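Table S4 entry, Secreted protein.
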Amino acid sequence: MVVPLTLALGSTPAAAAAACSAKAGPYQKQVERFLGRKADGKQSAADCRAVRAFQKTHGISPAAGYAGPLTWQVMNVMTQQKAAGKNPNKAGKCPTNKGRIACVDLTRQLSWIQDGRKLRFGPVPVRTGRNGDETRTGLKRIYWRNIDHVSSLYDVKMPYAQFFDGGQAFHSVTKSVWNPPGSAGCVNMRPSDAKTYWNMLRNGDDVYVYGRKPGT
């Protein structure tokens, strides 16, 4: 489960959401360092505004400027994604004997397309299943594609949908791909990335999902 934020901002959630936290969070220094601010572990009004802006951008609630576990979790994933560079399969966890394959690393919330050992596209950040609706791991295969798909279950648009495991698919979203707690099982992508996947992949192409999403 995702660890809930602990705020001492008021007696109600509404009060917490309305106020900017004067309290330093347990990840204050790490969050300040990530944002390029002075990492002194002390909350200032400017610190709060910077943290709050990050939270609002990525849909972290409450967006109160508090450096709590969820905010740091999102930042930590971003840091791991950046560290992957252009060698996301350095550990060799995604098969290199399948030809063209789309890899999904749940731990780092990354996906890429490779052909053998050659990286063809990515890595790109993705948003996978939340706790209780995890994106299922293992070797899959794209079996159906619909560029203008609309979910019959959630009545939401799923552009560039490429299904690889039951109702789980790659598809485009307009919200931040770092928005917690995650999807209902699909691999959400930024529009440009989903479009590239659509152009590069075909029915029958392999998909390999591994790892474990933080917070699940």
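The longest helix spans residues 69-84.
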